[in-house]
Amino acid sequence: MALETQTKTVVGQFDYSDEDVNKGVTEFLRQMSEGLEKDGASLSQIPTYVTAVPNGTEKGLYMAVDLGGTNFRVCSIQLNGDTTFRLTYTKVAIPKELMVAKTAEELFAFLAKQIEIFLRTHHGEHFEAHIRRRMTMSSPEGFKDENVFRLGFTFSFPVQQLGINKGTLIRWTKGFDIPDAVGKDVCALLQTEIDKLHLPVKVAALVNDTVGTLMARSYSSPGKSGAILGAIFGTGTNGAYVEKLSKLKKPLAGEYDNSTGEMVINTEWGSFDNQLKVLPNTPWDIQLDQATPNPGIQMYEKRVSGMYLGEILRLAVIDLLKNPDVAFFRDENSSSNDWRSTTNIAEHSPLFKQWGVDTSVLSVAAADTTPELSILRQELESNLHVYAPSLEDAQAFKAIACAIGRRAARLSAVAIAAIVLQTGKLTDPELEGEPIDIGVDGSLVEHYPYFRDMIYEALRAIKGVGEEGAKRIRIGIAKDGSGVGAALIALVAAGMEKTTSTTDFITDLRLNAKKTDLTAVPEHSELSELAAAE
Ligand code: BGC
């Protein structure tokens, strides 16, 4: 009984009512405007210099790399021009020590090495041909420009963008911490290491993963107005949307094409409301924040994204375990247990270690609808080393996990609704009845059960959206934004290079790609071939 009552108290602290959601939207809109007016606001609202979204007819072969979470991906993407594409990629885990390396060079040298391995494996013929050509050329700088791969660099951290392939790192997030890189141009850092290896690769575009997601969604499912928002709900969270240039009041440093009257803005909404004016703040949110390398920053992200939800759950569970009046994960004898023995927790249980609980446990808890919660109880045993948990234990654990997941989804609705309202698309008479398209990606939205349904439930309760508006908002998964989207932006960037003709090079590569069947895969990497499904 005590456990049930205490659990309810904990769960209650994660409530995020319809009223809270509406307050959140109002404040989000205010912080968006502030970010469009000046630098240094909580919502950075970073101009990306991308001024159009694709329409599905784009063609060509491009490269993309993606740094932003636990893995580094290298891809080549064949855009077929008919809304489909073919993607080849390798993925390698980023060694933990490189995430906190002393110098930027250490990390970026590792990235360049992976690009070399990828080229040798998947575009070997082309690569070798150019090595030969380079050796016979008198020019010391190597390759002719038209023989160089255009690469889109998806770098999913806050960057002050200074042009389509230039941007300085504002701060690290998601557990990365290499102070040496802060303030430096990340494209130049990568290009330097690529050049040291003499690779035929030019970093043509710098892309946030949310911008890539927006591009990929627009390419694969073009509607009357293209997608308006690309959002990530994964290890971190963020969104990029299409804004009218007239609303962008702060000065822009670089050149851009203003013919569309629009520009994609990277909101960096992970830092929405760092001041905690409207964000919920439980004792466990406070504890979590204080133990991170960036306290007081990314406060919205710390309540929403996959990197943090497992830790919030762990902290709440630990508090309940410490309560002497509550029998949680312990019993006097096995009689109250439907399984074999007395409940206990191993000393080495991940429950006692910071970051020990992976957010995937929340998904398992939410997905288990068996009457005995047997799947969750098995997970508690095998993953968290809680032996013979009772049904009541599992129910309490599930209730808390679901409350945290539900709050995250409702908070996600705040950002989505604010952006929809900001664009004015719901009330645009030209778009009457048309879907408002949003591309999303990330482990939470993909794997957490009913995450999208919970977002929709909150959207229906938002003033200015309501039942009708929510019906028009189409939230669809946009897989591989960081590959396809980056390729699309590299394509735009290549078009902007006045002196270059890439046609021969692309024809050459396309022939090459047809000939190369994807066989050899480097060890410790994954290979996949995908076509846009939607
Ligand atoms: C970063 C964003 C990124 C998001 C999703 C956040 O931590 O600041 O740039 O888009 O994670 O990967």
Highlighted features:
single chain; alpha/beta; Hexokinase, domain 1; Nucleotidyltransferase, domain 5; 2 domains; six-stranded mixed beta sheet; 18 helices; 16 strands; binds beta-D-glucopyranose
How would you characterize this protein structure?
This protein has 534 residues and is an alpha/beta fold. It folds into two domains: 1-47 and 225-481, Hexokinase, domain 1; 49-207, Nucleotidyltransferase, domain 5 (2-Layer Sandwich), CATH 3.30.420.40. The protein is 42% helix and 17% strand. The chain has 18 helices and 16 strands. The chain has helices at residues 2-13, 18-37, 96-99, 104-122, 124-136, 186-196, 209-220, 283-290, 301-304, 306-322, 360-367, 374-384, 391-423, 443-447, 451-460, 466-472, 481-496, 503-515; strands at 46-47, 59-67, 71-80, 85-93, 149-155, 159-163, 166-169, 201-207, 229-233, 237-244, 262-266, 344-345, 386-387, 436-441, 473-477, 528-530. The strands form four sheets. Strands 1-11-10-9-14-15 form a six-stranded mixed β-sheet, sandwiched between helices. Strands 8-5-2-3-4-16 form a six-stranded mixed β-sheet. Strand 6 and strand 7 (166-169) form a beta hairpin. The chain is globular and about 75 Å long. The relative contact order is 0.18. Mean pLDDT is 86; it is low at 498-534. The structure holds beta-D-glucopyranose (BGC). Residues 68, 156-158, 173-174, 208-210, 232, 234, 236-238, 268, 270, 301 line the site of beta-D-glucopyranose (BGC).
